[in-house]
Predict the structure of DUF4845 domain-containing protein.
Amino acid sequence: MRANHYKTIKGQRGLGMLQWALVIAVAGFFLLFAFKVIPLYAENRYVESALRSLENGGEKVENMTDAEIKKKLGNFYMINNVRSEGPTKNIKIDRRSEDLLITVDYETRVPLFYNIDLVLSFQNHLDSSRPGQCCKPVTAIK
């Protein structure tokens, strides 16, 4: 009877040192991944907000010059601490007959560990003919 009781207690001891090391390593990897990726997505939210602020401003975005648009976006980036080069260098303005398309498409590369990098690509479009659909890429109509 006593031997049976000892087997059940031995089976309920919990995780050993190796199992705890594995749990900590997996949790550490996911924390490292989150600390590298979350700031990049937060920065992209500021890029989206900058595009929305162009449309919500007092002046119509179609009436602004390219230099004014880039200056307003640059000021918004500076105030909100957008540091990566992608959003500032990849502003493209396409003027059509009556509409305006502003694209801020960029990739950001961040080192994860050793020689492994994460590459995130973001597409942010502002079409003045569809201001309610800000920051979503214009899809081809088929």
Notes: The first helix runs from residue 2 to 10.
